[in-house]
């Protein structure tokens, strides 16, 4: 029969293992989020008229003009939408 000290030390060891696993998970998530922020920052700063883009809701179009935080995207001939610069999720071609 295990003594109370053995049970306590096993509990502490288990707690330490779980804490280390959570710390590793947090570090991995932080690195992933940092990379994603950098990628989107580069995308949003490199927007130029003529670039084909995908808006976050899945619409594809060509940028006609960029003004501060607003972009105008031509979805089809004669159909232009005004969108936030930050709603662009991918640049298809420049």
TrEMBL record:
It is found in: Cell membrane. Its main location: membrane. The chain crosses the membrane at residues 12-31. It holds the Pfam family YajC. It comes from the Bacteria. One of its GO terms (cellular component) is plasma membrane. It is a single-pass membrane protein. GO terms for biological process: protein transport. Keywords: Cell membrane, Membrane, Protein transport, Translocation, Transmembrane, Transmembrane helix, Transport. SMART domains: YajC. InterPro entries: Preprotein_translocase_YajC. Belongs to the YajC family. PANTHER family: SEC TRANSLOCON ACCESSORY COMPLEX SUBUNIT YAJC. This is Preprotein translocase, YajC subunit. The lineage of its organism: Bacteria, Bacillati, Bacillota, Tissierellia, Tissierellales.
């Amino acid at each position: 029969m295990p003594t109370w000290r053995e049970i306590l030390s096993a509990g502490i060891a288990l707690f330490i293992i779980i804490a280390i696993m959570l710390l590793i998970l947090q570090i991995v998530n932080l690195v992933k989020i940092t990379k994603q922020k950098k990628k989107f920052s580069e995308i949003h700063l490199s927007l130029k008229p003529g670039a084909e883009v995908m808006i976050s809701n899945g619409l594809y179009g060509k940028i006609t003009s960029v003004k501060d935080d607003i972009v105008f995207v031509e979805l089809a001939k004669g159909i232009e939408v005004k969108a936030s610069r930050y709603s662009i999720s991918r640049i298809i071609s420049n």
